[in-house]
Design a protein that fits this description.
Elements: H1 4-35, H2 42-68, H3 70-94, E1 101-103, E2 110-111, E3 114-115, H4 117-144, H5 152-162, H6 164-174, E4 177-179, H7 194-204
Antiparallel strand pairs: 1-4, 2-3
């Protein structure tokens, strides 16, 4: 006979499995939207970009909730989305630490001078990069022995900052944001100053 504890555990397991499937479905939808990018231009491309970010952000939130509960969702909203908004608002108003830059007003509603979709983008990538950091820690433990759990945080932060190498050139080329003084820049990646990458690492650590 099933006990209340057994029933509750079964229901929790089913809910977690359903959450993981929902997260996978949302992430898959985001990827499918991104596949259309080469076929689009102008407003249609911008709309697809916004949709993919929101779908991916939702996937991250659902995944966090399914595997770690409501606290993880709140932590992700505040720690990634909230910090992302503050970082971008400070950056736009002061130029610190990313360098002086401005948004073109093409990415929808803004909060504190920052498109609302931008902190959603921080949120969408924070969760998978943290999971990647934890996976690397597991690999290091298997090979070298004990490794502190906190090592996953700087690893995830580094991966999140490295994402800028792909994102920023696309957004600058599309005209969504620009720097007042984009030099010095990395070879082959004009338009984005080194301060952007340094500032991204600083905030995300």
């Amino acid at each position: 006979m099933s006990t209340p504890a057994t029933v509750a555990g079964s229901r929790a397991g089913s809910a977690a499995a359903a959450g993981r499937l929902a997260a996978l479905a949302l992430a898959s939808a985001a990827v499918l939207v991104q596949v259309t990018y080469p076929l689009l231009s102008g407003r249609a491309l911008t709309t697809a970009t916004l949709a993919s970010v929101l779908l991916f952000a939702a996937a991250s939130l659902v995944s966090a909730g399914a595997t770690h509960g409501v606290r993880a969702v709140v932590a992700l909203l505040v720690g990634a989305g909230g910090v992302g908004l503050v970082a971008e608002a400070v950056g736009v108003s002061t130029g610190f630490p990313f360098g002086e830059y401005a948004y073109a007003g093409t990415l929808g509603p803004q909060v504190l001078g920052v498109p609302a979709v931008v902190p959603a983008a921080w949120l969408m990538m924070a969760w998978p990069t943290l999971l990647a950091g934890r996976a690397v820690v597991d690999l290091l433990r298997a090979r070298f022995g004990p490794v502190p759990a906190w090592v996953a945080v700087p690893l995830g932060a580094w991966a999140l900052a490295a994402w800028d190498l792909s994102l920023d050139p696309q957004m600058v080329e599309a005209g969504h944001w620009a720097w007042a003084d984009p030099a010095p820049a990395l070879p082959g990646i004009p338009g984005i100053p080194l301060t952007n990458y340094a500032g991204g690492c600083w905030w995300r650590w």
